[in-house]
Amino acid sequence: MASRTLATTALLLSLNLLFFTMVSSTYCPPPPHKHHPKPPPKATCPKDTLKLGVCANVLKSLLHLVVGTPPKTPCCSLISGLVDLEAAACLCTAIKANVLGINLNVPVSLSLLLNYCGKKVPSGFQCV
């Protein structure tokens, strides 16, 4: 009788060991979290675009090579507190809306005005 009890106990322990091994070996770690990068911020203009009409005189002077230096105050002071991307977006909007009142080559005019006011056209920026 003792051998039968011993055999049953040994069988139960063997089955327990077998099942616990099978259960613990099926652990599958969760897949790694995928990082989705945020798209770059869209350029927006925090200023009233109509106020940028004062840049027309500066741009006309720059384009027609008037002798002397055109005044920076009205135009450049409007975009002085903006970062390059915002300044480019503001002037791009003004040029496209023809607020300045002149037909322009957009990339050249934008670059010319920004450079004159001490700003740079951000790399990859397109005025569309």
Describe what you observe in this structure.
The chain is an all-alpha fold. It contains five helices and no strands. The chain has helices spanning 2-25, 55-63, 73-79, 84-96, 106-116. The longest helix is centred in the N-terminal third of the chain and has 24 residues, at 2-25. It is rod-shaped.
How is this structure best summarized?
This protein is mainly alpha-helical and 128 residues long. The chain has helices at residues 2-25, 55-63, 73-79, 84-96, 106-116.
Strands, helices and their partners?
Elements (H helix, E strand, L loop, with lengths): L1 H24 L29 H9 L9 H7 L4 H13 L9 H11 L12
Helix pairs in contact: 4-5
Question: Which terms would index this structure?
Answer:
128 residues; mainly alpha; 5 helices
Biggest sheet character: none
Tally the helices.
Answer: 5
Number of strands: 0
Structural class of the secondary structure composition? mainly alpha
Question: Level of helix content?
Answer: 40-55%
